[in-house]
Amino acid sequence: MTLLHDAELAAAFDHAALSYDRLVAANPGYHAHLRRSARRLRLPRGGAGLRLLDLGCGTGASTAALLAAAPHAEIVAVDASAGMLARAATKRWPAGVSFVHAPVERLADAGVTGPFDGVFAAYLFRNVTDPDGTLAVVRSLLKPGGRLGVHEYALGGRAVDRAVWTAVCRGIVLPAGRLAGDADLYRHLWRSVVEFDTASGFADRLRRAGFAEVRVLPMPGWQTGIVHTFVGRSR
Description:
It is a single chain. The protein is of the alpha/beta class and 235 residues long. It has a single domain (6-234), classed as Rossmann fold (3-Layer(aba) Sandwich). The protein contains eight helices and seven strands. It has helices spanning 6-25, 30-39, 61-69, 82-89, 131-141, 159-179, 183-195, 199-208, and strands spanning 51-55, 74-79, 97-101, 116-122, 142-153, 211-218, 227-234. A seven-stranded mixed beta sheet has the order 3-2-1-4-5-7-6, sandwiched between helices. Helix 6 runs antiparallel to helix 7 (183-195). It is globular and about 45 Å long.
């Protein structure tokens, strides 16, 4: 199986949207880890006066995490999957949160323009065809000194990290995906992580893209060495 990309991946997420929240809820720490990554942006004043972009918001789990860290901010949440956004729309949101259907390559066409004080991207970069191009778009949308937070499956580089991830996928993720009728998407999930940058590799990618003060922060529990927060600033 080759990795899914662009419209094909968005269509797979459309199909999975109805069961997606139920499946991720079975992942211990999923929402708590998103909130931890959002807090690591260290947004001041509870976000008062800030304009934030949640890039790849899915059904709104990352949006909720960002809102918990910055309850007074204006948040623009964007995703390429109409089905995932439809699920997000069924939830209650304050007036400062808006949702936009657009792939990252066509944000401007959808009316999403900068500047933003911060960008949060959860589980996005291993799913885009051109991560460097996406980082260039993100940097162009940020104010000078604006903050970037990335919450991503990026393996730590040890053999045990890859082994744990593969064992979890074979024992839990892939069977659950088959039961939900979304086997291709969850096979993509497994392979996209294995074939993506290591944590140190993605940090280097951020630095090459022009981000400063790049830090890599681990997650607790079984996701140690598997999921990381990456933070940096636009120059």
